[in-house]
Design goal:
The two termini are about 35 Å apart. It contains 5 helices and 23 strands. The chain has helices spanning about 30-35, 55-65, 165-170, 190-200, 305-310, and strands spanning about 20, 35, 55, 70-75, 90-100, 105, 110-120, 120-125, 130-135, 140, 145-150, 155-160, 185, 215, 230-235, 240-245, 250-260, 260-265, 270, 280, 285-290, 295-305, 315-320. The structure holds fe (ii) ion. Fe (ii) ion (FE2) binds near residues 246, 248, 252 and 287.
Length: about 325
């Protein structure tokens, strides 16, 4: 958008055609910085869409035994015209490969960090606490402090998701130590399995979207999330089942954990699942998930849903698939 030189004479036409306006006679630097837009030229700003895609190259690299210890980000910031790495506007997912007995540390500028253990075992140190993890575990740690993960006797592969883009959007720093909205929280694989089993034992009505296990903690019990913005859920889909089409304003960044012959339908387009892929389900898209295999499918879903719950704007509704 070009900025006009100060003028009081604006030609007739549509206000949508006007460049940003400036003060005619600024009396201070603060007045000089002021820009004036209008309903015609401000609200029609079109941002690039959140892409409907799957990251498959990144997990292949993370699972390759020749890949050295390090992070592999799922970054679509260029496509979304964002100046910092991002998988969706508020969320960044990355894989980490940590070779046996090696360590990988980072201080994420995020309010919290969600981990899933794809392979291996090890531990992550966070201040005075250490989480000892194994394959299939989910754990959450506060952002804004050094988190050092060390693999055990085998190479380890982790999936790590943060809300770094959310903080970067507002040019914020992570909370000071002890001030993050989460403590260290650990959901071991066997307990996750037990909880999912319980969901199926108890059953549900068709008015509930699926049989997802939602992770929370004592610190976030009130909002039933792990972080104020991020919701984390282990979704499961029995063999042959389809999850009812629905839409919501939150975007989903999901990790395919288990799902042969599984696919999603996004706004009428078929999207096959790939092993350990990170998939983006764009906001407001009508989507459903299908399990054409003979085993229970599982996928870990991170959504920026917390922020939509809080603003009373989740916009969840069941839907029929539009014709492709
Ligand atoms: Fe959904």
């Amino acid at each position: 958008m070009t900025v006009a030189t100060p003028t009081s004479a604006v030609k007739a036409g549509s206000i949508a055609e006007m460049p940003a306006q400036r003060a005619l006679s600024p009396k201070s630097e603060a007045e000089r910085r002021a820009l004036y837009f209008n309903t015609g030229n401000a609200f029609n700003l079109k941002l690039p869409i959140v892409p409907d895609m799957s990251f498959t190259v990144e997990p292949a690299r993370a699972l390759d035994k020749n890949t050295p210890t390090g992070f592999i980000a799922c970054d679509r910031s260029a496509e979304m015209a964002m100046p910092y790495p991002a998988t969706s506007p508020l969320v960044l997912a990355r894989y980490a490969r940590i070779r046996a007995r090696e360590s990988l540390g980072a201080n994420f500028q995020a309010s919290g960090v969600v981990f899933y253990v794809i392979a291996g075992s090890g531990n992550t140190r966070c201040g005075s606490e250490t989480v000892a993890w194994n394959e299939g575990d989910v754990f959450v740690l506060p952002g804004g402090q050094e988190l050092t993960s060390t693999a055990g006797e085998q190479d380890a592969v982790l999936w790590i998701v943060t809300n770094e883009p959310q903080l970067a959007f507002e040019n914020l720093r992570a909370p000071a130590q002890g001030q993050a909205p989460t403590d260290a929280v650990h959901f071991p694989a066997d307990e996750i399995e037990r909880q999912i089993h319980t969901l199926y034992e108890v059953g549900r009505g068709n008015d509930i979207a699926g049989s997802a296990l939602i992770f929370s903690s004592t610190k976030q019990e009130g909002i039933r999330n792990v972080l104020p913005t991020l919701t984390v859920a282990m979704n499961s889909l029995p063999a042959g089942a389809t999850q009812r089409p629905h839409r919501h304003n939150s975007v989903a960044v999901s990790l395919v954990i288990q799902g042969e012959r599984c696919s999603s339908t996004i706004d009428g387009r078929l999207k096959p699942w790939a092993p350990w892929a990170t998939t983006i389900t764009p906001p407001t898209s009508v989507h459903s998930h299908h399990n054409g295999g003979d085993k229970m499918a599982k996928f870990l879903i991170i959504q920026d849903g917390g922020i939509y719950y809080y603003t009373r704007a989740l916009g969840f509704e069941f839907a029929e698939h539009p014709t492709a």
